[in-house]
Amino acid sequence: MSPHSHADTTTPPAPVPPPGSRTAEGTHLMHRSLKVEPAMVESASRLTLHLSDGRAVLDACGGAAVAIIGHGNDEVAKAMARQAARVSYVHTQSYTTPAAEDLANFLLEGSPHGLEKAFFVCSGSEAVEAALKLARQYFYEKGETQRVHFVSRKQSYHGNTMGSLSVSSNLARKVPYQDFGYQHVSHVSPAYAYRYKRDGETMEDFTTRLLEELETEFLSVGPSRVIAFIAEPVGGATAGCLPPPPGYLRGVRALCDKYGILLILDEIMCGTGRCGTYFAFEQEDGVTPDLVTVAKGLGGGYCSIAAVLAHKRVVDVLRRGTSSFNHGHTYQAHPIACATALAVQTIVRRDGLVARCAAMGRLLEAKLRAALAGCPSVGDVRGRGLFWAVEFVRDRETKETFDPAVTFGIKVQQTAFEGGVAIYPGWTTVDGTKGDHILLAPPFTVTEEELDTIVRVLKEAITTQERIHM
């Protein structure tokens, strides 16, 4: 991330630009901020971004947990070029391509976890939108047309189109669009132990309470009106790398089965190996989602691609009914995107990068915990694989947050950027109004030496801001 690009969260008042930044007035490109133009990246290779001012920046967050194999991979570039030379585009109403078929077959070889069909689109938001519509059509085909409601979680993020934003709970992003989205949505507590587990409560007790709350919500809405429960198996950018407590996902699956409700697991940020297993939900036995959304790591940043992966039980209902999915996009299953994603995923599988992600993740965790143990602003260090967050507090004992006006996490990000390391900032972490964190999600190809640099620069950035604000 550059010091002024904030993916998956709403931009706060623009911070003062560092020396050398340009204003955004002289360009016709609509940037995220109309005041400050982002840093210009001239080229990138492996983990290094080369800026137009001559600086080199280590990409410790993969952009937005996207660049799983790093930048500038020649094998992927050649696959893109080959596909462009063969066929660059066809419309899926009439045609398919080997690239799209091969990617789907590669991802779903042997129907892992019962997942049978892949529907390829261009972004994570589109994938969630498609999953919501597919879930609704599933019940429409079954004649259960009264099912119109979705249950989601607070401090969640599922996308920025109107349907995906409606099931999200990133409050700041929704401010201009109140009463503008899908209304049949409710939200329950997040699986956020650091903030939501009560004093004296065990993790088992916390899991039980979360599941009881979810069941109560199903009953309050009326189970026969609920289409699906949607959740990130490991929470993403809004609250920062939240692993669920033991037994939570398994309990959610059991509740959905009890009431005939679908389970949508959003793995756009935490999936495709990012948490140390290919699917993040695989780390809890007995969890089989009905629909899974994947995106960021699918194309590794080399193309715009995302997917909904559908379980056989969902597809079978459509087969017995209309035999079609009543949804589509001009650029779905785009052949260049599919060929590119297949090249990325081939490298991930061939080179054992998911296992490498798990191993390097254990190393990163150890280094973070050792380096940051003495930082008074570090309240929590959490994550899985190469997906880690540091949550900041003004007081460790009380977990008091910094005043939002301080923008502590953003200032840590800016300081780290000036030190040559790009990290991912988050704010309104706790409840949509307050709290700060940063997120680390380097490519799976990161070396131990690079991890050392990332952790060293991060600690220096934190201690710099502690001297100013504590």
What does this protein structure show overall?
Belongs to the class-III pyridoxal-phosphate-dependent aminotransferase family. By secondary structure, the chain is an alpha/beta fold. It has 2 domains: 41-61 and 353-469, Aspartate Aminotransferase, domain 1 (Alpha-Beta Complex), CATH 3.90.1150.10; 74-351, Aspartate Aminotransferase, domain 2. Helix content is 37%, strand content 16%. The protein contains 15 helices and 15 strands. The strands form 3 sheets. The protein has a 7-stranded mixed beta sheet with strand order 4-10-9-8-7-5-6, with helices on both faces. The protein is globular and about 65 Å long. Mean pLDDT is 94; it is low at 3-21.
Structure at a glance:
It is built from 15 helices and 15 strands.
Helix content: 25-40%
Distance between the termini: 26 Å
Write down the Rg: 22 Å
Give the percentage of residues in beta strands: 15-25%
The count of helical stretches stands at 15
Mean pLDDT: 94
Q: Which architecture name of the largest domain does CATH use?
A: 3-Layer(aba) Sandwich
How does the major sheet shape up? 7 strands, mixed
Kindly state the number of beta strands: 15
| CATH superfamily placement of the largest domain | Type I PLP-dependent aspartate aminotransferase-like (Major domain)
What is the CATH topology of the largest domain?
Aspartate Aminotransferase, domain 2
Structural class: alpha/beta
**CATH domain class of the largest domain:** Alpha Beta
Number of domains: 2
Shape: globular
Regarding quaternary structure, what we see is single chain
Low-confidence stretches: 3-21
Family: Belongs to the class-III pyridoxal-phosphate-dependent aminotransferase family.
InterPro entries: Aminotrans_3, Aminotrans_3_PPA_site, PyrdxlP-dep_Trfase, PyrdxlP-dep_Trfase_major, PyrdxlP-dep_Trfase_small
GO molecular function, one term: transaminase activity
Organism: Cordyceps fumosorosea (strain ARSEF 2679)
